[in-house]
Specification:
This protein is an alpha/beta fold. The chain contains eleven helices and eight strands. Helix 10 links the parallel strand 7 and strand 8.
């Protein structure tokens, strides 16, 4: 995979596959490439798909700082390097960095598709729904600090209740091998307290929110406040997320880019 050198000496590993309109998939803070492999494979049938490792993870440099400002700057640099992207599909906390780049550089990133409702949670402020999310995330932050493996297992179990014990151990090990404790903990701490609402609102209808019933991290009640919180954002409910049912998210991307491939054909 090619490396992009940053001014501070860090290197960001990125990759591309397929041909067509460019789509960048921005993974969540601890996400290893296998988690988005299905979506990348589906979209590569008629898109040029860009993926990259956050600094501190995978093949990128183990060099911080691991904070929202630097992560957004790194994302912007990747987009500049590859010539921009028609769409970024952002998983979880990746939505924070994606909307910031899209708001300041629409020439590089016209549209953000957020898989999940974390942007709504930040915008909701002190709502009851957000309070529930806060308590879960703060408990997870404590566990990440004290028992990293147990914290990752808790994350994997909540999102994949049907995994066998062998599959569970494999998933946990892959996450830990990809993302060390320090960048995971630092990013979780900032994610809990981060608020990219201003940037998200600035996108207007260039922002798509995909919500998935049963999301263990952010309650579905948040979607009811979408017209209030992000009044111009587009919304679509999908049965499952970008990792468990990648073809559903891929269909949304094709609506945006005009791609013609239909999964299963």
């Amino acid at each position: 995979m090619p490396q992009l050198e940053r001014p501070d000496g860090a290197e960001i590993r990125w990759d591309e596959t397929g041909d067509g309109p460019t789509v960048l998939i921005a993974n969540l803070l601890y996400g290893h490439p296998g988690m988005i492999a299905g979506l990348a494979h589906d979209l590569s049938a008629d898109h040029r798909v860009i993926t990259y490792d956050l600094r501190g993870t995978g093949g990128s440099s183990r060099r911080g700082p691991y904070d929202p400002v630097v992560d957004a700057i790194d994302l912007e640099a990747v987009l500049e390097h590859v010539g921009g992207a028609a769409v970024t599909v952002a998983i979880g906390d990746a939505g924070m960095r994606a909307v910031r780049v899209a708001a300041s550089r629409p020439d590089l990133l016209p549209t953000v598709v957020e898989s999940g409702t974390s942007l709504l949670a930040a915008a909701a402020g002190g709502s009851d729904a957000l309070s529930a999310s806060d308590s879960v995330l703060e408990a997870l932050e404590t566990l990440l600090e004290n028992d990293y493996r147990a914290a990752i297992r808790s994350i994997v179990e909540s999102a994949n209740p049907g995994l066998s014990e062998e599959e569970m151990r494999d998933r946990v090990q892959r996450v830990i091998a990809h993302c060390p404790q320090e960048p995971a903990l630092r990013r979780m701490r900032t994610w809990i307290r981060d608020d990219a609402t201003e940037a998200a609102r600035a996108l207007g209808d260039r922002l798509w929110i995909l919500d998935h019933p049963g999301n263990p991290w952010f309650p579905s009640q948040l979607v009811e406040r979408l017209p209030e919180l992000l009044p111009e954002a587009r919304h679509k409910a999908l049965a499952d997320g970008a990792m468990s049912r990648p073809e559903l998210t891929a269909e949304v991307v094709r609506v945006i880019t005009g791609g013609s491939f239909v999964a299963g054909e």
